[in-house]
Amino acid sequence: MHNGRRKVTLRDLAEATGFSVNTVSRALRGEKRIAPETLQKILEAQARMGYIHNTLASSLRRGYTNTIAVILGDVSNPHFGVMMSEIEARARARGYAAFLQTTSEDEALERAAIQSAVNKSVDGILICPCPQSGQNLHTLASLGIPFVLVGRRSAAVDADYVICNDELGGWQATRALIERGHRRILMLQGDPEISSARERLAGYRRALDEAGIEYDPRLVREGSVMGKDNEALYAQILSEDLGFTAAFAFSDLIAWDFWRFLHGRGIEVPRDLSLVGFDNIQSRLSIPFGLTSIRTYKGRMSVEAVDLLVRRMRGEGDPAPARVVIDTALAPGETVRTV
Amino acid sequence: MHNGRRKVTLRDLAEATGFSVNTVSRALRGEKRIAPETLQKILEAQARMGYIHNTLASSLRRGYTNTIAVILGDVSNPHFGVMMSEIEARARARGYAAFLQTTSEDEALERAAIQSAVNKSVDGILICPCPQSGQNLHTLASLGIPFVLVGRRSAAVDADYVICNDELGGWQATRALIERGHRRILMLQGDPEISSARERLAGYRRALDEAGIEYDPRLVREGSVMGKDNEALYAQILSEDLGFTAAFAFSDLIAWDFWRFLHGRGIEVPRDLSLVGFDNIQSRLSIPFGLTSIRTYKGRMSVEAVDLLVRRMRGEGDPAPARVVIDTALAPGETVRTV
DNA sequence: CCGGGGGATGTTAACGTTAACATCCCCTCG
DNA sequence: CGAGGGGATGTTAACGTTAACATCCCCCGG
Prior knowledge:
Structural class of chain A: alpha/beta
Oligomer: homodimer
Largest sheet of chain A: 6 strands, parallel
Largest interface: A-B, 58 and 59 residues
Number of strands of chain A: 12
């Protein structure tokens, strides 16, 4: 039992073993030119004295940290929770620690998160940009630190990105409803400031076009990405008598919110309204009454994003921005009814 | 636009403005004894040259990092996702960055996570100990770095903890079933190596006792905490003809797994079996067919845990270990049927 | 027998910041 | 008018590690 009073440093080990600080450092890092018995003495002293390597000092001297920052909106959303989990695992496998920062989809918090990551000298950043993040990304790009956009892209910077095929997903969701006879489909679009919201809408429109259904802009409604405080919006929508028989929500979270709201008004899913979400966050939670959704391959996206970032940090690979788009798939559930 | 070629340091600012490094440092930190025009010149140079404060060097010199590590099993579980989100927000409000590390409920990964956190000189640690983590906690305690257990406690160390009242939760869940006429209640206990599993079982037994129902150990089954690979267990349980009409699962995640398994065997919830989970992860996802569960107050737990840790890091407060237990509540759902 | 090569270790400086201490100057008060 | 005080700034060393370079010694080959 050590009385954690003062930290044990390389110098302490050096004094205890009679070797120089440098020799101790090299021994602990596993360099070759060390006599076996020297190594043994040093390792023994390390264990006995409870030496702990100081990554701060090491990183300062070496100039890199083997750490990446992961900047996401909100890990309380299982979609991001799973993404974080997968990213962390992949990063660890590639020798990097992953540092989570959350933005609550707020531009100022995102700016602070980037700032903090850069201050900490992370070697690279994975970021799912929040709405209005153009300036932040612009700043980030000017810093010269490698970064990869995950889940959303941005017109503000010509940067690497790894996203799912949102246009396809939007098409698949809408198509699933059209095939069951729906022709007036509400779209809870989320925030059109983010690319995935715009592209899912594009897929929605393409599906309508292909089916010869006229696009009605009154059926497309914007809302907050995190789904907070959307009740007024839902009430407004119901009051307008738009005649829709189905809804496609930007995310499962928003779909649940809407579902709960409808239930409170006596409107049942799928009896009175069919519903499709996005992200398939119930992949693990899947239950017999599951929400029909669009599956995104979070594991593949995470691996691609981490590996791409690792290549950038190492200066390997094609210098042109990589654009990785991973197709989505329909995740059948029980919330779509034939009309 | 700067060509991020080389980092701009205090020395560069000093040379550019003609002041000493120390003056620049003090100016940027907002110390008082700085002439207004000096401050202005320095701030201008900072903006112009794109100076970025190096937290590594600063922390090394100052001896603290204003960072805490949060060590959890698995953020892909919304329960932990929400906890992380709440902890991060509270930590930020108290002036600390929160660093997430995940263990996958594995003792070796937990050890690595603690090691990594300590290497990074975090000022404190919040940890939800995995099964078999006794030795890890013991090591951690010997290091003298402040830490607080969150969500689970441990017999291995007499440390601060903030947990929910698992015994009460277990009682509430079981009681809810008993009140609806159930007398043979399966308990999917999870891993009895963790305190919450043991205490929820204690609550289960107390509820049975109070109702005069005999305890049948065959109805209590252990399983993996993360719920992975429990299918064989579920099959085994069904094959035993135990005559239970209800089940109480260690967590919502395990409840969902079991539910899905049952559905695959043609057994419907709640028609054929009533089901109660724990954690109420659907608080946000709540739907008309929601799982009956036990609500844990994750926001309060997070605030208590962070605030307690902050007190420890500052050396304030009662030196005796704090034991914070926050009561749970029944979260009514649709998965309990009267028999 | 001597030069050279290479393995083992030591010496020194540097990473970028901060804190303690020193200095300088000007203004005020006795 | 001189001592003293305090504001503004500079000098120096240190945080703990690592890398470049230097040194020493032993052994081998010519």
